[in-house]
Specification:
- The complex is a heterodimer of chains A (about 110) and B (about 120).
- Chain A is built from no helices and twelve strands.
- Chain A has about 110 residues and is mainly beta.
- Classes of the chains: A mainly beta (about 110), B mainly beta (about 120).
- At the A-B interface, strand 5, strand 6, strand 10 and strand 11 of A face strand 4, strand 5, strand 9 and strand 10 of B.
């Protein structure tokens, strides 16, 4: 069974600084996808970024980028120039090719301090 | 233009009652899901439907019965509600196929409170 671990329950950072959220996962599969989802206080689950395991290049979306280390089974999220609107729970998630479900980590509560 | 919508957004009911949550997506996706988020914010898959066919049922009590009348709709009916059913229930959808990206898009969630 796949597992996803987020070891940082809470983090806080000053506005405009850079923060990195950690995620590790365990799988015996070779083809899979990894995601970061954001859940602000509004409760909505918002897809932040996606990484295909077969791609060596790290995904980036504006201020969000990942550091994907396949051998180490590590998938961290870096948020640059953090903004107040980045305050949210962040969930790392995993899915296999051919498997329809997302397996989530326990989340990291990120607070951006003005 | 709401992509994935759920009704109601809040539901307060008493133990023993039966209730339903409805979900609709207008993204043209063929796969829909129900997830449960508990009080500690942990998210776990409950069910998945592809083209109206049940493909995932993750050891959910029989009191929970999903129904998919068509690809765009997935409803969740819960019988004999218990205190432990209090949670936020999320509907999600994605496109399944050789080239799809496995991205799942979530509805706004339904906060169910059982008293």
């Amino acid at each position: 069974a796949q597992t996803v671990t987020q070891s940082q329950p809470e983090m806080s950072v000053q506005e405009a600084e850079t923060v990195t959220l950690s995620c590790t996962y365990d799988t015996s599969e070779s083809n899979y996808y990894l995601f970061w989802y954001k859940q602000p206080p509004s409760r909505q689950m918002i897809l932040v970024i996606r990484q295909e395991a077969y791609k060596q290049q790290n995904a980036t979306e504006n201020r969000f980028s990942v550091n994907f280390q396949k051998a180490a089974k590590s998938f961290s999220l870096k948020i640059s120039d953090s903004q107040l609107g980045d305050t949210a729970m962040y969930f790392c998630a995993f899915t296999n090719f051919g498997n329809e479900k997302l397996t989530f980590g326990t989340g990291t509560r990120l607070t951006i301090i003005p | 233009d709401t992509a994935v919508s759920q009704t109601p957004k809040y539901l307060v009911t008493q133990m023993g009652n039966d209730k339903s949550i409805k979900c609709e997506q207008n993204l043209g996706h063929d796969t829909m899901y129900w997830y449960k988020q508990d009080s500690k914010k942990f998210l776990k898959i409950m069910f998945s439907y592809n083209n109206k066919e049940l493909i995932i049922n993750e050891t959910v009590p029989n009191r929970f019965s999903p129904k998919s009348p068509d690809k765009a709709h997935l409803n969740l009916h819960i019988n004999s509600l218990e205190l432990g059913d209090s949670a936020v229930y999320f509907c999600a959808s994605s496109r399944r196929g050789q080239t799809h990206s496995y991205e799942q898009y979530f509805g706004p969630g339904t906060r169910l409170t059982v008293t």
